[in-house]
Specification:
Number of domains of chain A: 2
Oligomer: heterodimer
Radius of gyration of chain A: 24 Å
Largest interface: A-B, 30 and 22 residues
Strand content of chain B: under 5%
Largest sheet of chain B: none
Structural class of chain A: alpha/beta
Number of helices of chain A: 11
Number of helices of chain B: 11
Number of domains of chain B: 1
Structural class of chain B: mainly alpha
Strand order of the largest sheet of chain A: 6-7-8-3-9-10
Strand content of chain A: 25-35%
Distance between the termini of chain B: 21 Å
Order of helices and strands of chain B: HHHHHHHHHHH
Shape of chain A: elongated
Low-confidence stretches of chain B: none
Helix content of chain A: 25-40%
Radius of gyration of chain B: 19 Å
Largest sheet of chain A: 6 strands, mixed
CATH superfamily of the largest domain in chain A: P-loop containing nucleotide triphosphate hydrolases
Chain lengths: 307, 254
């Protein structure tokens, strides 16, 4: 299958500070990539380099087999983007705003503007001036604008900012539907880790400009170790036994509370071993690493994740 | 490039500020035309109504626009048109729809230059209208009309170059207040150079020629030998400003 976007060794240095270093990824049609990172990690700079709003110091970007360096106009005609806070001509209506930009395309069929507004749920607000729009409505309008010209790749920078929970769910549903129905590829930067885990097919985590984790969301989450929280009696014996168990590692203990990582054994085997060693289990629960746990661990957000 | 130019033109001429300004300018011109002939005003402004009135009134008012008010008005409009759009992240939107940076700034420049020329013509119409309302057919004196129209056209060329200069400032500073400050500094330097005796500096200074045409040859025909070097210097400045704005825009990290 042909790649929609290939990014190789992207690098950007502002004065003496490296904003992005050696970022690489590639996406297929219908993929949704979550671009994650703390504030200042280089997410927006990466997106701006892809959209040619920001020059790159090194690297290669190919969009739908067209190099961004050799033919930026043609390459970017395949891309729709909504970056930063959504901004529009405040004195114009939603329809007029989209029409303004629709005129920049040669072959936008009549009625597509209203179709797009309908798609993002703004058809009833089409004649309302944008200055009267809420942030959520502007986000949706920005998505409609990004969809002009039926791009193969849509880039959204923190699209859920300012949206209420219902608005966020609707937005993510819209993105998923587009990826599924139209095979549109998405790159979405966000801090909503819980939601990103659910709807992104791919994940790229940046920290201080460098890629620290990337891959398919399912693979990333399944590869991560299962964690068991337990409370055991006979604290000293338990501590001694757990530190010598094969296939697990004791990550922390405080009094009789233990946190254990199951590395090569399953939960049943672990419980069996505890019973075999005459350890009385007062409490036991297993949790899987969520994207948030991973993110916090990788970016050094907190030392220990406690649910 | 045509759709982008059209988009910017629509955006520019939707600005209410333009209509408010020209309504105020008309009012000012109207009252000036009627009050200027009162002895009190003659004494206050140290003018001679027989010189500045009637057929010379449109030229008298032109200086008022081109010298200060027009430049300040242009800088306010252009900062709204470029710096404020940049600040509100809408300037780069066309780039996300396949437009190039060159085409974007070319379209901005075309609309801005057209705007500055249209404004000069509009002030001519306003000033002739108010002069006609005050003095009637006495303002239609052939030699004066030809001379005044010539000066308005030269002012249009000057305003176009200044507009390109303001665009360069907008792009380089990317800040409204710094741009306005830059223009005020230009006006101060202009006043200094035009009133000084540094001949070499005057010959290469864009503002000198406007002062030469409007003050040294006020209410007189400007000889061709004084027009051509001025147009040459202005064209040179215009080309340089235009090239700088193109080069600088290519390097902006939005």
């Amino acid at each position: 299958m042909e790649k929609i976007i290939t990014v190789e060794n992207l690098r950007k240095v502002y004065k003496k500070e490296t904003a992005v270093e050696n970022v690489c990824f590639e996406l297929m049609p219908g993929n949704i990539m979550g671009l994650l990172g703390t504030n200042g990690a280089g997410k927006t700079t990466t997106l701006k380099m892809i959209t040619n709003l920001c020059s790159k110091d090194k690297g290669k970007i190919v969009i739908d087999d067209i190099s961004l360096d050799s033919n930026p106009g043609l390459a970017l005609s395949k891309v729709g983007a909504a970056l930063d806070t959504p901004s529009f001509y405040q004195e114009l209506t939603a329809r007029e705003n989209i029409e303004c930009f629709a005129h920049l395309y040669k072959n936008i069929p009549n009625g597509q503007v209203m179709e797009l507004l309908d798609y993002v749920g703004l058809s009833t607000q089409a004649e309302k001036k944008v200055k009267k729009f809420s942030l959520g409505m502007k986000q949706r309008l920005a998505l409609a604008r990004a969809m002009l010209g039926q791009p193969k790749l849509i880039i959204l920078d923190e699209p859920a900012n300012g949206l209420d929970p219902q608005g966020q769910i609707n937005l993510y549903r819209l993105i998923c539907d587009m990826a599924k129905d139209k095979k549109t590829t998405f790159i979405v930067s966000s801090h909503q880790l819980h939601d990103m885990e659910k709807f992104c097919t791919d994940i790229l985590i940046l920290n201080k400009g460098k890629s620290i984790l990337q891959g398919k969301t399912d693979e990333i989450l399944s590869e991560t170790t299962n964690i068991v929280d337990c409370i055991l009696e006979e604290t000293e014996v338990a501590c001694n036994v757990l530190s010598h168990f094969q296939g697990i590692s004791l990550t922390s203990h405080k009094g009789n509370q233990f946190t254990v990582k199951l590395e090569s054994i399953c939960l049943d085997e672990f419980i069996k071993k505890l019973i075999e060693n005459n350890l009385h289990i007062c409490y036991l629960s297993m949790r899987k690493n969520s994207l948030q746990d991973l993110f916090l661990k990788l970016t050094g957000g907190v030392k220990q994740c406690i649910h | 490039m045509y759709p982008l130019t059209k988009l910017y033109a629509q955006k520019m001429f939707r600005l209410k500020l333009i209509y408010i300004f020209f309504a105020c300018f008309f009012t000012a011109s109207f009252f000036y035309a009627f009050l200027i002939s009162t002895p009190q005003m003659e004494e206050l402004l140290n003018i001679n109504i027989r010189i500045v009135g009637r057929e010379n009134f449109p030229e008298f008012m032109m200086r008022f626009y081109v010298g200060t008010v027009g430049i300040l008005f242009n800088v306010f409009l252009l900062t709204l048109f470029i710096c404020e759009e940049d600040r509100s992240k809408i300037l780069y939107q066309p780039l996300l729809h396949g437009e190039s940076r060159n085409r974007m700034i070319q379209s901005k420049a075309y609309v801005s230059i057209s705007m500055s020329i249209i404004f000069v013509l509009l002030t001519a119409i306003i000033n002739y209208t108010t002069a006609f309302m005050r003095w009637g057919y006495k303002i239609f004196e052939t030699t004066a009309i030809i001379r005044t129209i010539e000066k308005y056209l030269l002012s249009g060329i000057y305003m176009s170059c200044i507009t390109l200069g303001i665009i360069v400032l907008c792009i380089c500073t990317r800040n409204t207040w710094k741009t306005i400050l830059g223009v005020i500094i230009y006006m101060l330097i202009d006043a200094f150079i035009s009133n000084s005796n540094i001949l070499f500096l005057q010959k290469i200074w864009i503002g000198y020629y406007l002062n030469l045409w409007t003050f040294s040859y006020e209410y007189q025909k400007i000889p061709l030998k004084e027009i051509l070097p001025g147009i040459f210097v202005m064209a040179l400045y215009g080309i340089i400003f235009y090239q700088i704005s193109l080069c600088r825009t290519e390097k902006i990290d939005f």
